[in-house]
């Protein structure tokens, strides 16, 4: 069992957590408006990905290279973990997106 510091001390809750299949990395989303990537070996946060309002859901791609996230802003974002950049935003969805997930072959 590994404990990581979380998203801060301001009462923000972690809304979703995804652990990589190899157990080396975790991705979390929070109402603090960030997605965070964690190295589970060291417990350190390696990326802070910002762009949403409150984050509702996160999902790590099967190959570990990308993260999907959704928030209360009616968007889905695709993040490249090599660079930490947001590489695609699906905007103007009809409602907040509560859950995003990859399927086994890497589609979302």
Q: How are the strands ordered across the major sheet?
A: 1-2-3-4
Q: Based on the structure given, which CATH architecture is correct?
A: Beta Barrel
- Category by helix and strand content: mainly beta
Portion in helices? under 10%
Overall radius of gyration: 13 Å
Per CATH, the class reads Mainly Beta
Mean of all residue-level pLDDT scores: 88
Domain tally = 1
Secondary-structure element order, N to C: EEEEEEEE
Characterize the main sheet.
4 strands, antiparallel
Instruction: Give the DSSP E fraction (strand runs of 2 or more residues).
Output: 35-45%
CATH-defined topology:
Thrombin, subunit H
What does this structure look like?
By secondary structure, the chain is mainly β. The chain has one domain: Thrombin, subunit H (Beta Barrel). The protein is 0% helix and 44% strand. It is built from no helices and eight strands. The chain has strands spanning 14-19, 25-30, 34-39, 44-50, 55-60, 66-71, 76-80, 85-90. The strands form two sheets. Strands 1-2-3-4 form a four-stranded antiparallel β-sheet, with no helix packed on it. Strand 2 (25-30) and strand 3 (34-39) form a beta hairpin. The mean pLDDT is 88. InterPro entries: Quinoprotein_ADH-like_sf (IPR011047), WD40/YVTN_repeat-like_dom_sf (IPR015943), WD40_PAC1 (IPR020472), WD40_repeat_CS (IPR019775), WD40_rpt (IPR001680). Keywords: Repeat, WD repeat. Pfam families: WD40. WD repeats lie at residues 20-48, 48-89.
């Amino acid at each position: 069992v590994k404990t990581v510091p979380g998203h801060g001390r301001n009462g923000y809750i972690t809304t979703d957590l995804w652990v990589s299949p190899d157990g080396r990395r975790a991705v979390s989303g929070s109402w603090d408006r960030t997605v965070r990537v964690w190295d589970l070996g060291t417990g350190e946060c390696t990326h802070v990905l910002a762009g949403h309002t409150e984050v509702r859901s996160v999902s790590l791609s099967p190959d570990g290279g990308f993260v999907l996230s959704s928030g209360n802003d009616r968007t889905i974002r695709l993040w490249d973990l090599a660079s930490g950049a947001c590489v695609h935003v699906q905007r103007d969805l009809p409602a907040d997106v509560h859950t995003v997930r990859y399927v086994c072959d890497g589609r979302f």
